[in-house]
């Protein structure tokens, strides 16, 4: 590469991202959904771990509900047009993951109570 930044004859320019990453209609949908799934699991877990490490148990229990503030991130991403589709599917992933976890917990608790007594 020369000092002006242009490639010499021996060097090839870096390839463009493949069509899948640039223009495929389902790319933002898939990435957004699975980002939402990971977001709803990882963010509260990391927040609880940091609170547990840095604060007393009583203070950590009192401050844990503030993790709801983390939902502001996907909501703010709904505003710009460029990130709107990604944010819509991210919120879908967050909501569906929470529903599945809640339904599974409810079913397991019901089964445990029904079998025990």
In short:
By secondary structure, the chain is mainly alpha-helical. It has five helices and no strands.
What can you tell me about this protein's structure?
The chain has 117 residues and is mainly alpha-helical. The protein has one domain (30-116). It is 70% helix and 0% strand. The protein has helices spanning 19-23, 27-54, 57-63, 72-77, 81-116. Helix 2 (27-54) packs across helix 5. The mean pLDDT is 85.
Which helices and strands appear, and what pairs or packs with what?
Blueprint: H1 19-23, H2 27-54, H3 57-63, H4 72-77, H5 81-116
Helix pairs in contact: 2-5
Question: What's the total count of β strands?
Answer: 0
> How does the overall form come out from the CA principal axes?
elongated
Q: What portion of the residues fall into strands of 2 or more residues? A: under 5%
Number of domains: 1
- What summary fits the major beta sheet? none
Class from helix and strand fractions: mainly alpha
Structural Rg:
22 Å
What is the average per-residue confidence, as pLDDT, rounded to a whole number?
A: 85
Number of helices: 5
Low-confidence stretches: none
Order of helices and strands: HHHHH
Helix content: over 70%
C-alpha termini separation: 76 Å
